[in-house]
Amino acid sequence: MDSSKLLKTVYGIDIHFEDLVYQVKQSKQKEKKSVLKGISGTFKSGEMTAIMGPSGAGKSSLMNILTGLTKSGVSGTIEIGKARKLCAYIMQDDHFYPFFTVEETMLLAAALKISNKCVNLKEKRILIDHLLNTLKLNKAKQTRCSKLSGGQKKRLSIALELIDNPAVLFLDEPTTGLDSSSSFDTIQLLRTLANEGRTIVCTIHQPSTNIYNLFNLIYVLSSGQCTYQGTPQNTVMFLKTIGLECPAYHNPADFLLECVNGDFDDHTEALTECAKDTRWRYDQQLLQDEAEPPTDAQVAKFNESQTQGQAAQPKIQKVESAKELIKHTYPPPEWVRLWLLIGRCHLQFFRDWTLTYLKLGMHILSAVMIGLFFGDSGINATKQISNVGMIMIHCVYLWYTTIMPGILRYPMEIEIIKKETFNNWYKLRTYYVATLITSTPVHIIFSTVYITIGYLMTDQPVELDRFVKYLLTAVVVTICADGLGVFLGTILNPVNGTFVGAVSTCFMLMFSGFLILLNHIPNALRFIAALSPMRYALENMVISLYGNQRDKLVCPSTEFYCHFKNAITVLRQFGMEQGDFGYNIMMILGQITLFKILAYFTLKHKLKSV
Ligand SMILES: Nc1ncnc2c1ncn2[C@@H]1O[C@H](COP(=O)(O)OP(=O)(O)OP(=O)(O)O)[C@@H](O)[C@H]1O
């Protein structure tokens, strides 16, 4: 299959909805609010439809229902059926990974959406070049996404979704934030895509006359009711039938919106009644005062006569069966997507210097500073309380520097994940596993660097098994902090997340067994300490260093008596002589598993609600 064929075969999908009602719960009120009040309509393939209406009329709600993003509270019938897989939704804001170029973003999208078995890399490159040329993005091919202009971002969003040749494109306010020339270019491009046989549906605010006339169908909503469904050219005549005369040289789109807004009295009822007449959808020449709307054959004949002499339009194929549909979508297996996402996460990690070099530099600097402060605390029997304090600092440092980025990770990426999972680039669980696979080695490397420097600089026992146990505990507590951070990031916004993250760290620190000894905590409250991963981590790090019959520590000759000369005294002092390394590790691993599973489900829930 060559790439040009991939783009040329367009499956025509008509969207028909009947008696659509959407009700939402209102806080404090028992009665539900009807956002959409039994609207009906048909958006045909080969046509570009604009959904218009005043703010709060229900445009986005209708779009979300048609795309399948909103499911609860909806009644009525929608006929898109299995063809939902051939739909793409381009949301209002354009979100991309900032460190990738346009070409890289396109290549990755192509790899995620189309199996190499159907279209090989060379053909994908040809396809991408073709799309970038069509969307006038070829000059920005090597530009990083963060550096694109608003119009270029919108065109890139469209190009990304065109890769697998969707039959239906939904766009939420594609011209918002663009200047008039970019807006016109974007809508003209969409019209070209519609002419090729696709169904294009977009919401739009106050289009200029030029843009308005590019649409095939205008679908106007007002307070959840349809107040016009017809061609742009019929608007003036439609309004005239209910006595609303559009002034000369006035933009019909503006006048239509003024009328439905109630600027010339409330005509909603009359407009709703008149909008039920589907004949406004057709050219007046075709109707010729017929009482019935024309048949499809009549429309096709008329369109043919209108386009005579122009380039032949591609033939639109109808989707007949689910089998045929699967053939048309060419998705690669999910494990291939997993590899691709792991690759993307890695690249992103290395390109963002704040994630790599800055963090690594800070870890090294902090470890050296702590090493200089604590000196020989690992061996000097007079400094053992300070040494356990240093272990506490290691725990808190690793915890805090991991939980905060964890809290902020998903809020920053949520819009990208939402767009990509909704448009069938990959499944959420694939993405989630890819982030787990890529983030874990990073935590291991960073905590190893930090702990090794701190360990060696403070004269801790040079015994491999003690070091390995100490390091292992530091690594698992770091991964646990990441798990909790990600979980908090999926249930709270960044402001509340960082607050809760900081407060929870304080509590975990309080119950870690250093600031207040475990056997000093009232029995009834000890279960709180049992919830703190830092309590298990601290105990494990202390028993790694002082347990297992460690040799005596060095008591300086200047000292008359060293209370902590025997390592077991340190364990007794902190009530940790009964500590079980394996049990503590299992408790932290249990919490990691819990947080990671919870985070997946809360992320899934969040994607549905944003
Ligand atoms: N889940 C919801 N819960 C409560 N109210 C909702 C919900 N979804 C939509 N609404 C309400 O329904 C109305 C229509 O919202 P919608 O976002 O569809 O309007 P819109 O026409 O897209 O507006 P705009 O042009 O300003 O984006 C608004 O009053 C909104 O507050």
UniProtKB/TrEMBL annotation:
Membrane topology per record: Multi-pass membrane protein
One GO molecular-function entry: ATP hydrolysis activity
One Pfam entry name: ABC_tran
SUPFAM superfamilies: P-loop containing nucleoside triphosphate hydrolases
Gene3D superfamilies: P-loop containing nucleotide triphosphate hydrolases
Domain ABC transporter stretches: 15-248
Sorted UniProt keywords: ATP-binding, Membrane, Nucleotide-binding, Transmembrane, Transmembrane helix, Transport
Cited PANTHER family: ABC TRANSPORTER G FAMILY MEMBER 28 (PTHR48041), PROTEIN WHITE-LIKE PROTEIN (PTHR48041:SF32)
Protein name listed in UniProt: ATP-binding cassette sub-family G member 1 isoform X1
Organism: Drosophila hydei (Fruit fly)
